[in-house]
Structure formats: C-alpha cells, structure tokens
Amino acid sequence: MTTPFDQEPPPECPAHGLGAGGLRRLYGAEAENDPMGVYEKLRAEHGPVAPVLIHGDVPAWLVLGHTENLYMTRTPSLFSRDSRRWARLHDGSIAPDNPLTPVFTWQPMCVFADGAEHERTRSAVTEAIDRIDTRGTRRFINRYSNRLVNDFCEGGLADLVGRFAEHLPMMVMCQILGMPEEYSERLVQAARDMIKGTETAIASNAYVMAALMRLVAARRAAPENDFATRLIQHPAGMTDDEVGQHLRLTLIASYETTANLIANVLRMVLTDPRFRAQLSGGHMTVPEAVEQTLWDEPPFTTILGRWAVCDTELGGQQIKAGDALLVGIAPANVDPVVRPDPHASMMGNRAHMAFSGGAHECPGQDVGRAIAEVGVDALLMRLPDIELAVEEHELRWNSALMSRHLMELPVKFQPQPQQDVTRPPDPAASRRPQPEWEVTMSEPKTGTGSAPVPQQPAPFQAPPQQQPVAYIPAQRRPSAPKRLWQSVSRWWRGY
Ligand code: HEM
Questions:
Q1: Which of 126, 206, 357, 389 makes the best surface tag, with the fewest CB within 10 Å?
Q2: Closest-lying ligand 1 atom to the alpha carbon of residue 125
Q3: Percent of the chain beyond pLDDT 90?
Q4: Ligand 1 atom at shortest distance from the alpha carbon of 353
Q5: Number of structural domains in the chain
Q6: Model confidence at 455, in pLDDT bands (50, 70, 90)?
Q7: What's the 344 CA to ligand 1 centre distance in angstroms?
Q8: CATH number of the domain that 237 lies in?
Q9: Does a structural domain hold residue 42?
Q10: 468: containing domain
Q11: 239, exposed or middle or buried, with CB in 10 Å at 0-12, 13-18, 19+?
Q12: Closest ligand 1 atom to the C-alpha of 329?
C-alpha cells in the first residue's frame, strides 16, 4: 500500500508551501505567516487528519478534527507519548541537527511516558499542583502584577508583552516552585531562550537547571511548604534528577504558555469588537475573555505529539505503526463540526483543546487561568483607559510549529502614580469565602457597561475577593474596529 508520504513531488510544483509528494509544510514562510490558512487548506484537501511535512521535510500527520484529537489523546493504547517509537528516527530521515530535536528527544519525564510510569511521575506533579495555596497565590499574582505596572505606569506608554506578559508568569512560578529570590530578568531570558532552541539554548538550559538543582538540594536538606518539597516527598520516590527535570518541565510548560495567554487576552481585550458588543450588553468579564482566547488563540497551536503504536485508522487515514501525529489544538478549536460559526461567542463552553485531552491533559490549567485572569484584571484596574498605541495591523507575530506569539503589544494610557505594593495583604480578605481560582465578576458600574470606572490612585491592597473587579475596557477607537475586525476574521478564515 502506498501512503501520501511515498509519492514523488510534482516537478512543476511552484508553491513553496509544498514539499515532497505535494504535501504541505507546517514550517516556512506560508505556515509562519498564516498557520490558520494552512490548516483550513489541509482540512479542505484531506478532511480531519492530514499528511504534512515538518522541519526537514519530515512526514507527520496533523490531526485537525476536534473529535479525532480527543480520540487520539484519549487512546494511549494506539497513540503513545513515547517519541522513541518514531520510525523516522530509526531510518535516518531525521538529521541530528533537526531544529525540532529538543521537542521530540525522549527524556525521562512524564511528558514522554505512558501507562504506569506516566502515572508515577504525573501523580507527583498533579498532587504538588493540587496542594498549591490558591488564595495565597491569587494574592501574589495581584501583588506581582501591581509591581510590574508600577515599573511603567508613570510613563503613559508601555509594551505589555515585554513589560508585563513575559514577566508575570515567571514571577508567580518562581514563588510557587519555592524560589522567589531566583526571579530575575536573566532567568526570564534564559527560559525563553532555551525554549526557542537558539544557539545559546544549551547555556540557557544549564543556567535554569543550575537554579533548579540548587533548589532541590536546599529542599532535600530543609523541606518547606512549596512545590519542590512536595515533589521530593511524594511517594513516587523521585530521584533528585527527576525532581529537577520535573521542576524544569513545570517551569517551561507554565511560563511560555501563560505569557502567550496573557498577551493574547490583552490584545483581544484591546482590539476585538466582540468584547465591545458584549459590553454593550454589559457582561463580558476578564475570565470570559480568557476562555474566548483559549478557543481563538490557544497558546499552543499544535503539539508534537503522539506516535502510533500499531497500524491503525484515524479520520479516514491509514496511520502506520511508528508514524508521528501532531495534536492540532488551534485547528480543532475551529473545527466546523463543533463550531459552525467561528465568530460565535463560546461563553460558558470550555470544550476547547487548549489544554489538550486524555491522560496528558495539562494539569496546571487552573493555575494558568488564574495568572492570566488576576493579572489582566489587576492591570485593567490600574490603567482603565489603556488602548493600543499602534494600528492593529502593525502588530507583529512570531510563529513556530507549536505556538504563535505576539512580539510586542504597545499601549498608551493616562500616566498614573505608583502604588504601594509592599503593604501586607489584608488578612480579612482571605477569610472571606470565595470560589477556588475564580475571578469575581463585577456588575456594570455605568448604565451602558461600555467603560470601566476609573480608579483613583490608592495604596495597594490585596484584591477584594467578593468585590467587583475590572471590566474589560471598551474599544476606544470607535471608527477603527470594523476594518480591524475584518482583518482579524480574514486571518482566522485564512484568506
Ligand atoms: C494557560 C496556560 C497553559 C496552557 C495553554 C497549557 C497547555 C498545555 C498543553 C497543551 C499540554 C500538553 C498535553 C499533551 O501532551 O497532550 C500541557 C502539558 C503540561 N502542562 Fe500545561 N499549559 C498551561 C499552563 C500550565 C501551568 C501553569 C502548569 C504548571 C503549574 C502546567 C504544567 C503542565 C505539565 C506538567 C504538563 C505535562 C503533563 C503530562 O504530560 O502529563 N501547564 N500544557
């Protein structure tokens, strides 16, 4: 039987988005400029599972259908997380310097494990996450957010990616893991660098690992009530090396994704007329903006991946044992089968694939949501008149196989004085009952609900847990949105 991967390329093929066998590439100019457009072409050409080429023109399958993605992630007996099964690794078709090597090289971590071994290491991570003090963490998120805003609020201008989104998750995660004193610009840069696979990635990885191994040694000697100690003390009996690797995994898995989510939520809040429309109805809140963003701009667009355990069929395609498959998060989220109108509000619906599914589904999703919700909320409270400082079409994105991020988000606002973030949180606030990980939604403060109520500068206090919090500011350029919205929706439709 021949597969799409065996066919020769048509010699006349002019499209640079096509490679061997006329297959579409998920890398290169076309895929990087318009990934959603490529996904939709693939869906039209192949249905819910499409043959594609990834870096180095290595063949793989991209799973586009929502149902097929769920099936794949929930059926580890057919689709393993163990990359050592990849037949292409053994037939010489993947060069040793393939840029995706850091993504697919097997490591002794829960991400690459199946079955009992996955259960052993993952249970340590999930229990450590479950025991995070949610109220205390929300207070830290709020305090760190205000500290970051203090650094730029007096200027009236800021890039929210570089000054806010890229820092907040690292500050919070250093606190959660148990190393708040290690947070620094250098750590932020090193974490980004090692994910990007740049020339300095190895040195950056060594820098991050050294910080984490110092933490492991310190907690082994003197346990504390933090994430690192919980990993060490878990009955899974992790070695120091395993603890260090899982701390690194947690830092990477949480940092890049949550930074992306914050940036994407802020962009939507500032530019997307759907929020304005909702606001005129009065009730689009920050948590709803976060959820809509997880549908429309998930921090991971795809995940490499899963590897077929045996010959099988998925979405009408014949998958061979040892084939690689990508979890198609972004395409699954706009699959017409589950979302016939891609512009419809998904309010109240959390069935997106942003956190994947099955046994490897993200265990930190509530932490990620909380950082984004509390952080964006705190920023909007401090800078209620915030607006984009450039036209939306001037925003620049950086795309890779597995994610797409905003490079800058320049904003302007009325300069505000700094607030005191050193005062201890109000203890009464933590005694009040509150839902876990949930940002309270406010009632509109104006008749139309079209704008947030400006805050008077005041000393910083812990967030009032059952009091109203910020509404998303209304779009402040009444004439611009229509044109901008057209460009956004064109981007989503891919034409
Ligand atoms: C909004 C932010 C986040 C998003 C969108 C996200 C998304 C994901 C996705 C798509 C996966 C891959 C699942 C798969 O292979 O099928 C994953 C795995 C993982 N995430 Fe997250 N994540 C986020 C935040 C976090 C946070 C804050 C933490 C830790 C506190 C975390 C910890 C992990 C871990 C440990 C794994 C590996 C789980 C396993 O393989 O069993 N993530 N995440």
A1: 206
A2: 35
A3: 58
A4: 10
A5: 1
A6: very low
A7: 26
A8: 1.10.630.10
A9: no
A10: 132-275+368-495
A11: exposed
A12: 10
